Amino acid sequence: RRRIDIYCFQDTRWKSNGVCHINSDKEKYKLFWNGQKTAKNGVGIFVKEPLAQEVLDIKRISSRLM
Question: Which Gene3D superfamilies match (predicted)?
Answer without folding.
Answer: Endonuclease/exonuclease/phosphatase
